[in-house]
Specification:
322 residues, alpha/beta, Ubiquitin-like (UB roll), Rossmann fold, 5-stranded parallel sheet, 10 helices
């Protein structure tokens, strides 16, 4: 009698019991998974299904894989409706202003009591869901999503086509020195779907500490630009005492987002028109080296002029003679 293979599928925080025959192939498995999850076979990435250390093709019989009973199979993949939603820009995005000269406004508002009070309120009321434990003695890297890691305006069949080149290599290198936080001026569902679509939420070589959404931002008023929503790093510093202006850096394609912490922000070149630029954009690759040099050689990130990061030449530390 032909053997039955019982598999426990792990996907999106849930488990599903899947049964197939040894004569069924990998494509049959994917079709069965679709019945349970709704994820189409071409969207599925079966992470730990191997044949002699390699990913089996869809014609491979399941009997050849010699799977143990209740083998736990991990899958990455997105539902069609989630892909559509993640590739459709939300309607509540703040209006973008010309921020070429926004540093003129920074000194005027950075320490105003009314805004410090707003930060204190966020520290008290905003709940952060820790995804992965913070590690001792690590620096802090805060990253935007849209136009920083992902071209959210262009259309494409897959998230990989809109992902900024070298994203996973960049995050892997950064993770050696930094706890990584994602902060987007959108809603939490948007962030979660984007990270799932890009494979950031479950990558084996790095982990994201937590996400922050638009509710963690505050509004400020400047004489030149009026009211703007911004990302004050003080919200994080108030909740996690190990982080401060000395060991924190934020990447964003819009300078106004770090107007409350101008010395800790780096305006990254925006990644747009992915279909034209993904073959020549190496911004993240070069910034990987900058982050490494910064972590190894700077005791105070706020003392470094991040606007000139491309020219940064770290000085070797020498012990002072008494």
């Amino acid at each position: 009698m032909e053997g039955v293979i019982k598999i426990i599928l792990k996907w999106s925080g849930k488990e599903y019991d899947v049964e197939l025959k040894e004569s069924d192939n990998v494509l049959d498995l994917k079709k069965e998974i679709e019945k349970h999850t709704g994820v189409r076979p071409e969207r599925q990435k079966l992470l730990n299904l191997k044949l002699k250390g390699k990913i089996p093709d869809e014609e491979c019989k399941l009997g050849q894989l010699k799977l143990k009973t209740n083998f736990k199979l991990m899958m990455m993949g997105s539902l069609e409706e989630d892909i559509v939603e993640a590739n459709t820009a939300p309607t509540n995005l703040p209006e973008v202003v010309n921020d070429l000269d926004i540093e003129e406004e920074e000194v005027a508002i950075e320490n105003q009591e009314v805004y410090l009070a707003k930060i204190e309120k966020r520290i008290k009321d905003y709940e952060i869901k820790i995804l992965n434990d913070l590690r001792p003695d690590k620096k802090l890297l805060v990253l935007d999503i849209d136009y920083t890691l992902f071209d959210h305006r262009s259309t494409a069949q897959t998230g990989a086509e809109l992902m900024r080149p070298y994203l996973h290599e960049f995050l892997t290198t950064a993770y050696e020195y930094y706890d990584i936080v994602i902060w987007s001026a959108t809603g939490m569902k948007w962030i979660e779907e984007k990270m799932k679509l890009l494979g950031v939420n479950s990558h084996p070589h790095y982990k994201i500490a937590f996400y922050l959404d638009s509710l963690a931002m505050i509004s400020v008023h400047t004489p030149k630009y009026g009211v703007m929503d911004v990302k004050p790093l003080g919200v994080i510093w108030g909740k996690f005492q190990q982080f401060s202006s000395k060991n924190t850096i934020m990447f964003d394609d819009i300078r106004r987002n770090f107007i409350m912490n101008p010395k800790n922000g780096l305006r990254i070149k925006p990644f747009r028109e992915a279909h034209l630029n993904r073959h020549k954009d190496n911004e993240l690759l070069r910034l990987s080296k900058y982050l490494k040099d910064l972590a190894e050689h700077s005791k105070d990130f706020a003392s470094v002029n991040h606007r000139h990061w491309e020219k940064y030449k770290p000085k070797k530390r020498h012990e002072r003679r008494q």
